[in-house]
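Why do we care about 3D structure at all? Because function follows from shape, and shape follows, mostly, from sequence. That is the central idea of this module. The next example makes it concrete: a single protein chain, its amino acid sequence, and then its structure expressed as tokens.
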Amino acid sequence: MKKLLLFLFCALSTSIGFAQTTFTLNIVNDNTSISDPWVTFVSSLNVVNTWETNGYSATTLNGTALSATAGATSLVDGTSYQLSTIGNSITVGSDWAGNIFFSDSDISSNLGSSGQSPVQTVNPAWETDPTHNPKFLITATSQPTLYATNPGSADATTQRYNYIELGGGSSSTINPDVTYINYASVPLQMANSTGTRGTPSSQGSLDTLTTRLAALTGNNPTAVVTSGGQIVRVIGPDSGSTISSLYQSFGAYITSSVAPGAKTIQLSNAYSGHGSLTGLIANQTYTPRTATPVTYDGTTLTIKGTSTEASVGDFTMTATITPAEFSDSIYAAVISYSVTYAQNTGSPITIAGNTGDNNVFSAVSRDLLAGYSYGFINSTNAGDMTSAEWQTLSNSDAFANAQPDNTYYNTWAAEIAGTFGDVYSFPFNDFLNDFSPELTTASGDTLTVTMLGVNPVPEPSTIAMLGLTGAACCMFVFRKRKRS
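And the structure:
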């Protein structure tokens, strides 16, 4: 899942009292549709749960509490500030984790949970307990919620907003990235002393990005938010089944990929776990176990493999899932499954899980979902490769280049990748080894975020009206000349 990072250092640095360090956030507005931008800091939270009968639940910050000042003003988490009031230079604590929104108005009353899940990890002590199957534990430092709190994608507002996401690197660095996973609105570019991220391939591509994204749904108003004849926001297919159903289904792709004569889906890769532990979270590799390791009959998805970890061994993953649910899972990058693994040193064990779990089986399902999103599965250039080999490829090998005859890939991600090569467009962008969306910002550095200028492109209904008006004018001129 997106940025499977451990926030251990952030937690430790807070607990043992490292001195806080800061970087400067400089905001540049080149977007003429936003005369006086607003900025909003929203901390990333982590929900801590156990799957025991009497489970424990708590919410913690992924980093330190927000420490951000603009001149003499101390900024408050979740509050929107207009730049004309606070200025465009803000001092921020380097070990803070969350999202920074840039908008055309106050969005503080429109913030809602993104609904994403943190990563689950197996509690090693339970693995050795013979009285019951392993249970799952989410620890406070295991994984951030995949997106910090976002404005609700289904809201009825016509606000323009986008954000950069900051994940902890150490007590003195932060790793920001630009993401268009949930929606595309205000285009953002980041720059610091080491480089830039979010520079468009061309101004023309940037100008037409939202219209191209809107066209993917047939300009459906549920996904395409307009105001004053302009598109202000397009909601991405990752934002739930209601939205993903408006985008192209993966159904035909899935069917063709498991049909007779299709290339074998080789989910063979390494899981980077914990070297000192055994079981599901230990370092291990997995390979296919049968000649047809991935099958799907329209109801049941089955993946058969084997692991080099002795306490895992042979495994069979199954998911009871309809084609529509399968398609939604590819967009959302999460699939739920049941796994039976041989546990070569003992009796077989069956557990339930999903791609959000931080274990070897989540990595297997990640490979499958990423393979469909990129179009690598059953493709002309990568269909004979293992999933480990897919990771050595780049965006130029994916999408239409992998599937030249069909749009068998995540079309939302492909459109964004055509404009930006180094931003997040779907949750498994970082599956590819050469993908570098983060711009590590050290203490004392200046991170400049530019709200990019876009030449307005009318919304489709306005274009249609202009076309009719133009046609009417041509008819009028033609008739007038004919009469004369």
